[in-house]
Amino acid sequence: MNQRTIFDRSYEQEFTWQSKHIKFFLELPNIGRATVEKIIEVNPDINQWDREYVASQFSNFEKFIMLLPEEIPKLQNLDETIVMNYRENRFPKSLKNMNKDKPLLLWFKGNPEIPEGVAVVGSRKIIPETTEVINNFIKHLCDLHVCIVSGLAKGVDELAHFAALENNLKTIAVLPSSLDNILPKSNTNLAYEIVENGGLIVTEYGPDSPRKPENSHYISRNRIQAGLSDLVFIAQSSIPGGTMTTGKFALDYKKKLSVYKSSTNLDIEEYKGNRYLLQNIDENFDFSVLKFTNNQIDLFKEKESLADFSIPEDLEEIKNSLIKE
User: Fold this and answer.
1) Which of 55, 114, 215, 261 has the fewest CB atoms within 10 Å, i.e. the most exposed one?
2) Is pTM beyond 0.85 here?
């Protein structure tokens, strides 16, 4: 927690930032989300913008001040019915509480008050065994009325959304693109169906975003999927693969990680990522696969495996862990 000092003006100011101001700062070059959040923290009243004071709260004053605007320009208002910022009550609490790299702005369609859920993620090209596992997993959870979180991509993601809808569960789709550019196009109708059934579509990217998302957008999408969830279930993953980044985010954010353990096909290429996450951690375990920090490695050495649960063996234990007291 930050300590108050005689040089800190933030305690004397009310919060007056709007989503349009956050968007403006996020689009400045060489300034990331965490930096924007700190700028807001030290200068909560945007109407009292003080470039020199804000720069003085960061190391390397002379370099940082050159990144900041001298004045806040007149900005076009954003449509508050489709965009929300992290300081609002309707912003998902689980994302507000992310310990690092939280999203500050979300464009959305649907119900933003859906509680945390279970992320179901995996490869785009799935085998029949994975299809059966996903359907059984979500059906097994339907009496808990959990929300199913995924990324609307082909394969595991779309199957997870469909299974949620079939079992009368709310579902959240996190996009790597803007709301007016649903990707893949083939899942546009699925996106509408999610909203019509009380679900939610969210994205960090506004209508003016490039039509072809950068690869980093997919990684950022994966972190939000993990952030929105109490538990992440990896149904099928190879190495390398985008799904593995979602697993890493789950571990970074201290979310429970569950992984499908095939009784007959765990050695095949399609389940190589599953096998790694379920592998016993010993002196020969290769932590470099997911590029963990030394501090993380020290913590993980106390675990039997990176995965907290395996499916289907631990289904009942997973259900018990999701029951809210």
Assistant:
1) 215
2) yes
